[in-house]
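Page 42, continued from yesterday. The earlier attempt failed because a stray header line got pasted into the input along with the sequence. Redoing it now with the clean sequence only.
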Amino acid sequence: MRFLVSRTQKEVVCVEQENRLYPLHSLVDPEREGTRFLNTFPPKGFFIFLGLGCGYHIVPFLEYKEVTTLLILDTGIELLRAILGRIDLRKLLLDPRVSILIDPPPETLQEFLLTHYIPSISGDIKTVPLRSRVDLASDFFQSCVAVFQKGMETLSHDFTVQTQFGKKWFINSLANLPIAEVSTHTLTPKRKALITAAGPSLECSIEHIRNEKKDGLLIATDTSLPLLLENDVIPDAVISIDCQHISYHHFLRGLPKEVPLVLDLASPPLLARLTDKIIFFASPHPFCRYISTYWRQFPSIDTSGGNVTHAAVSLAITLGSDQIHLYGADFSFPRGKSYARGTYLYPYFLARSNRYIPMETSFSHFLFSNQKLERRRGIRGIRYIPLRMEHYKLHLETLIEKSRISVVPMIVDGEPIRVPTNPSRDERSLTKRIFSAGPISCSWKEFLQAYRQDIQNLPLPFDPVISYLDSLPLNQRNLWTTLLPISAVIRKDHGKEEVPPSILLLESRTWALQKIERYLFDW
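This time it went through. Structure tokens are written below.
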């Protein structure tokens, strides 16, 4: 590599390839060329710069507080050393928003994106290529872009969920604190677990479940509970993870008094009043994790699969089960049938039916409206697979593969589930564990009063908000993290209106304080 001087007396690094020099910036006026990037990429949001060069195209973005993060990717540590030895990049390197990754492995890239990009406050994400650099190492930069695209799919889904449920998670968790303080029930493990989902194949598995239940732990998803009760099959536990009140429909047939109910801390408080045998667990929602860390430790279940069957399998694994039988986990609509007869959609559609809109019409509308369906033909007919169910199945297969447990899916007409052919789970991970909460550190009111005081005492946020968060000690950053799902909802409520991230944080704190005060003074 070599350095040449432009007409404006600025040094420009040149990369030598095939006996030819390729300048990475203009040899006329590299600074003026760099400012042109501002016209193409409006300076606000999260930026990924492909190629460092001499930084002429990056430095102009530092002047805008609306720019939340700048990640610079490049390849070749020798090139970086040479540039730093000749070009003064202190302004770039000392800015807390800037990170530089040289030849990062894919897992490092993905981890950076998942930990640094916060959609509700980071703004839109933009990829800015330094074309002269990208052309010289196209394979490297294309692989980086592919990793980010995969990571963005996960973040996009998570953000969409936050915009829908961010406030519900917080409100439900607040409302469940009084019950969570006194709940003492436990769930004892068995090495063999039976899990029921609500797919159509559950109907023809009832007798098999009845026989296998004798020496296994039967965990029913809330969606499958009505069919089990209709057939006098009493589960050993029921699990529910949905934060929406519609989940109460699964319990309209009642819940046997002897059956414990495993609930997310963010579940509707109405469910927690169904029985005194409540076992709360802490999902990854930030406020739930905060409660579990600083007030009372709750067991953890992996809910990243997005559906209750995945959570039920995670529960069985947490209990130390090494053999799991799955029933009704069809992850499809075999021959157009959505769920097992007797589950909540049947009484709901029946109540709405009349001579003009029979129940079959409601099911048909449910199947074909607003769903991206793939048709697959099997031995017993056509299966319709919604895109979301395909994702659910992939997440479950990943969980099973990582856990290396023996899973027996009882599939009749549904989608086949890939399981390890020779599972060999580490014996140390098969230790039987009691599933229960730990001791409380104080009363729920004292905890909530302290939490309210702590978020009231948070310093006023400023933009760029990433710099503000980096300036805070860890405990205060954790407090803001509990409010980020709320800020996602507030950002959505603002619609197309441009709201500075610092204002979003303030509005989130104000909303949370109002809800906390309501619960403190109502009790």
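Notes: Residues 209 and 319 are 20 Å apart (CA to CA).
Reminder to self: strip header lines before submitting.
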